[in-house]
Amino acid sequence: xxxxxxxxxxxxxxxxxxxxxxxxxxxxxxxxxxxxxxxxxxxxxxxxxxxxxxxxxxxxxxxxxxxxxxxxxxxxxxxxxxxxxxxxxxxxxxxxxxxxxxxxxxxxxxxxxxxxxxxxxxxxxxxxxxxxxxxxxxxxxxxxxxxxxxxxxxxxxxxxxxxxxxxxxxxxxxxxxxxxxxxxxxxxxxxxxxxxxxxxxxxxxxxxxxxxxxxxxxxxxxxxxxxxxxxxxxxxxxxxxxxxxxxxxxxxxxxxxxxxxxxxxxxxxxxxxxx
Length: 275
Known about the structure:
It contains 11 helices and 12 strands. It has 275 residues and is α+β, with helices and mostly antiparallel strands.
């Protein structure tokens, strides 16, 4: 049987699938009084620089954005802004919120603060469309607003090939957990046994685990079992009873119940529909 891919990209995809993004405010103007001393951002914010000069300091890093640069100021970042009145930035700006299970998206992925946009006219059109939609309150406009915000986010992150934080991508804790569960997936795996293996007390282990994965250890183990079941159903001819036994389910009925809750299909339906 081929390798069952529980890569960090899959882990990131699980996070992104739960992304909640909310539009808050948008504007486009020249701001002569734009300079501000260091403060903590209360919301996520995008700038699209149209022209002007200045300095933006984010969490101690200094940037001098130029025309067609896009700037991200994430919630809770420490930011100071400076620009002379004669050369003040003319820009679009948009406040929004991007969270996954209540946690900021930008706590989960590595991201740049400033990128250069290769298609500025298209990005401007997205900001303009957002500006038009802000005054509407129908369902279609709400869906379009969310879609545009996601597209802006994707354009921004793709410019710098954003990647999972080290704590998700390379961290030894994550690698150990994934490898251990994969290699012992047919066994009973308890939170206590995992915490003992890591040399942590159980309460501290759970807090560290939640920080890295965003869900409880028990739920993550269940999800890994069910992802393995999906793979085996599609890429092997093993019986459902055999699959249940090899991934740690005590009965076919238990696997079927959890699998249906997870995917919307019974194992038989899933194999028949997608294999």
